[in-house]
Amino acid sequence: MRLWPARRGGALATALALTLAACTQFPELDAARSADVANAPWPDLVPIETLLAGPPPRATEAETASVSARAAELRARAARLQAPVVDAATKARMRRGVSRPVADPSQTG
């Protein structure tokens, strides 16, 4: 009983799947980049101490409002997704089940 080829094939399939996944494009990330950012020069490399010595970054009021609005939209969507999929009347009808029609004795022959 040889298991080596089966294991080797599984490892090869996994490696192939990971390789193909690495080639995936992310258009939503590319679309989020504005023209200003695309044409901006690369930032200067500075020692970490210089960065830590400066004031901590703060979000603007517009950024805070945008993030808060997005969070509210996501919470509302999550609440909608938690709602029942089937309304109460349909659920009651489903619980009753399907009744088979009663055979009419006059039509049997």
Automatic annotation (TrEMBL):
Where do the segments described as Disordered lie? 90-109
Q: What name has this protein been given in UniProt?
A: DUF3035 domain-containing protein
**Organism source for this protein?**
Litorisediminicola beolgyonensis
